[in-house]
Amino acid sequence: MLKRREFLQAGAALFCAAALPARATGATQAGAGHVVVIGGGVGGATAAKYLKLANPALRVTLIEANRTYIRPYGSSEVLTGHVGMDDLNVSYDALRSRYGIEFLFDRVVGFDPARRRVRTAGKRDIAYDKLIVSPGISLQYQAIPGYSEAAAASRAPSGWIPGPQTALLARQLQAMRPGGRFVIVAPPSPYRCPPGPYERAALVTEWLARHNPTAKVIIVDPKDSFVTDAGMQLGWHRLYGYNIPADYLKDMPADVVNSGRPAPIEWLRAKDGGTPRGIDSAALRVATDAGWIKADVLNVIPPMRAGKLAFDMGLTDAGGWCPVERRTFESTAHEHVFVIGDASIADAMPKSGFSANTQAKVTAQAVVNQLAGREPGEPIWENTCYALAGSDYGLFVADVFRLKDGKIAQISGQRYLPLDASKTRIRLAARYQQAWLKTFTEDCFA
Ligand SMILES: Cc1cc2nc3c(=O)[nH]c(=O)nc-3n(C[C@H](O)[C@H](O)[C@H](O)COP(=O)(O)OP(=O)(O)OC[C@H]3O[C@@H](n4cnc5c(N)ncnc54)[C@H](O)[C@@H]3O)c2cc1C
């Protein structure tokens, strides 16, 4: 692994000292130029596609480390066998053949912002006029004492970036002893996919009810709330007999009454002692303020930061995320460089695929406008997070965002599926989630 200084030098050493033209690639025609996109995940793929849609004459190069994208959204369904690992694979073929995007499957390892160039592990030097970076997240395994990347790869997987750890976790769940405990360690905010850990807990609980009915799911959490928490707990209550804490119970529909009996799903919040203090991955247990929690399967979702590339490129702040000028998502660290998706600081917008997709569209248009000498325009972003409390029990939260006092703010207030929604609406929300997954993937990658 290159250190940041080495990373920058590795890039800079190769570049000649000649003065740069106004456009680094020498393009002179108004609106023309070369836009390089790094990261072919949700944000990067959408940006590349929408750049070409906005201006087909633009040269767009997408640099991505892997030939196939493994989508994180929907990846918890691998644990319960609803989908296989292969179903997470997304091809770049359609993007390549339909829009004339140039692809380079390589890892970016060097960056010279003064010369507007990036360098890859395969020793390609690429000049850009504008650079869009969507590197995703890095998992801070070491942020929880006793936990490590090695422990995640072997004993206590995370699977929050999908891949071998997801497959390992699925095997562990399916092999768990009768009556075993599946413990999920939820992350502190901000993190990728705010309802995600709780949806995962729900899907595992549903699967266990059929395959291991005396088993239990425990969520150990450093937080006291999460987006969609009321709706999710109502779903857990109706489907699995979860006992809703008193502070949520008062807002629930009148027919909701806790049985008081032990339920197969438990949420240990910070205020109940849930903050994880350490992991003993050999013994599969978590130290919390409420004592040790022993697991049979231990799924740790550690704290997160921007993807490593963002650190290497000097795009991050002290908090580990990338500050941007909110109107366009141009980095406040480097001119002509835009950071979108989970890695960016986007205020009220959650770190979701939906957000990354809508940020990509707004930024692509802003870049096209900049190259043509036009003003960026007034941005509007949106997000809908769908989540499942069970495979037939859906919920969602939807928002629209605009600039307010230089920050990104919700303009309409969050819209949830109401707690008194009918069974039909709840079932429909689960169908919408499935339909969204398909159309969303097409919007980003086809
Ligand atoms: C279990 C789970 C469920 C989720 N469910 C939902 C959901 O229902 N709805 C929703 O909206 N979101 C959901 N998400 C979140 C969503 O997947 C992410 O928010 C989204 O993928 C972020 O997009 P991104 O472009 O920022 O990063 P990513 O999609 O992670 O893409 C980053 C890309 O950058 C590439 N890259 C990194 N470094 C380099 C380098 N040096 N050189 C070249 N390439 C590089 C990587 O290979 C990767 O392809 C879920 C996530 C999880 C984990």
What would you say this structure looks like, in words?
With 446 residues, the protein is α/β, with parallel strands linked by helices. Helix content is 28%, strand content 24%. α6 packs parallel to α7. A 5-stranded parallel β-sheet has the order 5-2-1-9-21, covered by helices on one side. The chain has a 4-stranded parallel β-sheet with strand order 13-12-11-17, with helices on one face. The chain folds into 2 domains: 4-136 and 307-378, FAD/NAD(P)-binding domain; 143-302, 3-Layer(bba) Sandwich (FAD/NAD(P)-binding domain). It has 11 helices and 25 strands. Residues 9-20 have low confidence and may be disordered. The longest helix has 23 residues, at 423-445. The chain has helices at residues 4-12, 42-54, 93-99, 149-154, 164-174, 196-211, 229-240, 246-249, 308-312, 353-371, 423-445, and strands spanning 34-38, 59-64, 69-70, 89-90, 102-105, 108-112, 117-120, 125-127, 130-133, 137-139, 181-185, 216-220, 265-268, 276-280, 285-288, 291-294, 297-300, 304-306, 324-325, 330-331, 337-339, 381-390, 393-404, 407-410, 415-416. It starts with a helix and ends with a helix. The chain binds flavin-adenine dinucleotide. Flavin-adenine dinucleotide (FAD) binds next to α2, β2, α10 and β22.
Task: Provide a concise account of the structure shown.
It is built from eleven helices and 25 strands. With 446 residues, the protein is an alpha/beta fold. The protein folds into two domains: 4-136 and 307-378, FAD/NAD(P)-binding domain, CATH 3.50.50.60; 143-302, 3-Layer(bba) Sandwich (FAD/NAD(P)-binding domain), CATH 3.50.50.60.
